[in-house]
C-alpha cells in the first residue's frame, strides 16, 4: 500500500549447498525408487552435519549465498507473463553455481489505490438536486444521501472517467 509509482522490486535468488559431492543428483531415473529413501536419509544427514559444523563455528543457521538477482519496475507490469533477465552473480567457487540460465518468468501486477479506495467524496449538486458523490475506480457515483452510499445501495448516477 502507498507504493510510489517509481518503485523498484528486487528479486534475489539465494542457495545453500547441502553437500559438496553432487554426483547423487545425476543418478539415472530407473533406480529412483530404490534409492529414494537413502537419498532422503543422506541429504538429512548432510544437512544435519552442515548445521552442526556451522554451530561449532559460531554461525547459527545455514549460510546462503546470493546467486542471481533482477530488478522490476512499473514498466514491467502487465496482464501477461513475461520473461525477465537475471543478473548472475560472480561466484568465488564455480562448483557451487546453480544451473540458472539467465532468465525467469513472472507476471508483475500493480493496481492504483483509486481502484479499491475512495479518492474523494462529498455533497454535489446534479441537475439542481443535492446528492452524495464518490470518486473511485475511475467512476463518479452519486446517491440521494450519504446513508444510501454507505449502505452500498445502487447509485442514481454513474459517470465513467475516461480521460
UniProtKB/TrEMBL annotation:
A cellular-component GO term for this protein: actomyosin contractile ring
Chain ranges of the Anillin homology domain: 1-76
Biological processes per GO annotation: actomyosin contractile ring assembly; mitotic cytokinesis; septin ring organization
PANTHER family attached to this UniProt entry: ANILLIN/RHOTEKIN RTKN (PTHR21538), PH DOMAIN-CONTAINING PROTEIN (PTHR21538:SF24)
Record's protein name: Anillin homology domain-containing protein
Amino acid at each position: 500500500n502507498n507504493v510510489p509509482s517509481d518503485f523498484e522490486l528486487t528479486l534475489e535468488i539465494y542457495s545453500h549447498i547441502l553437500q559438496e559431492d553432487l554426483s547423487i543428483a545425476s543418478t539415472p531415473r530407473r533406480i529412483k525408487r530404490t534409492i529414494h529413501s537413502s537419498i532422503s536419509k543422506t541429504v538429512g544427514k548432510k544437512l544435519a552435519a552442515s548445521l552442526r559444523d556451522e554451530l561449532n563455528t559460531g554461525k547459527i543457521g545455514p549460510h546462503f549465498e546470493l546467486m542471481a538477482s533482477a530488478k522490476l519496475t512499473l514498466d514491467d507490469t502487465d496482464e501477461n507473463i513475461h520473461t525477465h533477465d537475471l543478473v548472475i552473480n560472480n561466484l568465488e567457487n564455480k562448483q557451487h553455481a546453480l544451473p540458472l540460465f539467465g532468465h525467469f518468468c513472472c507476471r508483475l501486477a500493480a493496481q492504483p489505490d483509486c481502484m479499491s479506495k475512495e479518492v474523494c467524496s462529498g455533497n454535489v449538486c446534479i441537475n439542481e438536486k443535492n446528492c452524495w458523490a464518490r470518486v473511485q475506480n475511475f467512476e463518479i457515483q452519486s446517491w440521494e444521501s450519504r446513508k444510501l452510499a454507505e449502505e452500498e445501495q445502487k447509485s442514481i448516477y454513474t459517470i465513467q472517467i475516461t480521460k
